[in-house]
Design a protein that fits this description.
Blueprint lengths: L1 H6 L7 H39 L4 E3 L2 E4 L5 E5 L2 E3 L11 E4 L5 E4 L3
Antiparallel strand pairs: 1-4, 2-3, 5-6
Length: about 110
């Protein structure tokens, strides 16, 4: 009985079939990981553009306190800061195309 079980080949996967299935799975995983990488790079590029477009300018007015009769008792000057665009703010957007290549779109 043990000899019959040992010689029975029904349901056996040949090594060539295992290699073929493994190759298909690995190629599919590589394509999927490339697409995942392109999606992550695109989202991080969008996040970087959002931070680059964030305007940090501000302005505050001064405060004056007057004496009861005449004159200024105390005063503070206002403050102002104007945020100018940096050289690297939103100048390149990374876009993945077929083959995993990257192209830069936008201002350079």
């Amino acid at each position: 009985m043990l000899q019959n079980l040992w010689n029975d080949e029904s349901g056996v996967i040949l090594s060539a079939e295992i290699v073929l299935i493994g190759t298909i799975l690995i190629l599919g995983m590589i394509v999927g990981l490339v697409e995942l990488q392109c999606a992550v790079v695109g989202e991080l590029s969008d996040l970087g553009d959002a931070f680059g477009n964030f305007d940090q300018s501000y302005q505050t007015s001064g405060i004056f306190s007057y004496k009861h009769r005449r004159g200024i008792k105390a005063a503070t000057a206002g403050a102002r800061y104007r945020d100018r665009p940096d050289q690297c703010d939103c100048n390149a957007i990374i876009v993945c195309i077929s083959g995993g290549e990257k192209r830069f779109h936008g201002r350079r």
